């Protein structure tokens, strides 16, 4: 048993009053997509320069609009056959064919003039300053910081200033 699992077991048994079997059931409840068996919801990026966003999961459904920003992060919230229901950072979305999506992770800068820092700590040297709406490649994330690549620059930004990564997500 790993130390983390042991700590979780102690927490659930002592603090929450749950038996170890109940603790295991609660920790392991990750919703999975019915088609891909991947975690739901999850973030992906737009692979194409244009993607029709449809009202339903087939070519016969009406196109509500077109996403036109390659590499834009999207959140997958449902799956049906070859279709994924996605939302953007404003909560707008619909059904997109899976071939137009990529597993490459990107984020959108949600804070204007966001410093891209040399180290994941306040006061570190600024490598660049990112404007609101910039799309950056997502590398690794700690509980509070994410390492990004944008416009030829690399550095760390606070996670709260990004859309396209979960608050509790850790990436190595």
List the main descriptive attributes of the protein structure presented here.
2 helices; mainly beta; five-stranded antiparallel sheet; single chain; 172 residues; globular; SH3 type barrels
Model description:
The chain is mostly beta strands. Among the domains are: 42-104, Roll (SH3 type barrels), CATH 2.30.30; 107-163, SH3 type barrels (Roll), CATH 2.30.30. The chain contains 2 helices and 14 strands. The strands form 4 sheets. The chain has a 5-stranded antiparallel sheet, with no helix packed on it. α1 (3-15) crosses α2 (20-27). The model is unreliable at 1-26 (pLDDT under 50).
Low-confidence stretches: 1-26
Mean of all residue-level pLDDT scores:
87
Q: Give the helix tally.
A: 2
Shape by Cα distribution:
globular
CATH class of the domain at 42-104, anyone?
Mainly Beta
Short description:
This protein is mainly beta.
Chain-wise SSE layout:
Blueprint: H1 3-15, H2 20-27, E1 42-46, E2 51-54, E3 63-67, E4 73-80, E5 83-87, E6 93-97, E7 101-102, E8 106-109, E9 114-117, E10 126-130, E11 135-141, E12 145-150, E13 153-158, E14 162-163
Antiparallel strand pairs: 1-4, 1-7, 2-3, 4-5, 5-6, 8-11, 8-14, 9-10, 11-12, 12-13
């Amino acid at each position: 048993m790993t130390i983390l699992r042991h700590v979780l077991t102690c927490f659930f048994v002592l603090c929450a009053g749950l038996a170890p079997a109940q603790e295991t059931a609660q920790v392991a409840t990750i919703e999975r997509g019915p088609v891909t068996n991947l975690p739901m919801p999850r973030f992906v990026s737009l692979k194409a320069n244009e993607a029709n966003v449809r009202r339903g999961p087939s070519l016969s459904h009406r196109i509500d609009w077109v996403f036109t920003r390659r590499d834009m992060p999207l959140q997958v919230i449902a799956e049906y056959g070859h279709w994924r229901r996605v939302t953007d950072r404003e909560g707008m979305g619909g059904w997109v064919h899976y071939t137009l999506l990529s597993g490459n992770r990107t984020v959108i800068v949600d804070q204007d003039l966001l410093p891209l820092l040399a180290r994941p700590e306040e006061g570190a040297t600024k490598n660049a300053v990112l404007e609101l709406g910039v799309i950056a490649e997502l590398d690794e994330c700690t509980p509070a910081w994410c390492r990004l690549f944008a416009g030829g620059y690399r550095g760390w930004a606070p996670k709260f200033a990004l859309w396209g990564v979960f608050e509790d997500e850790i990436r190595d």
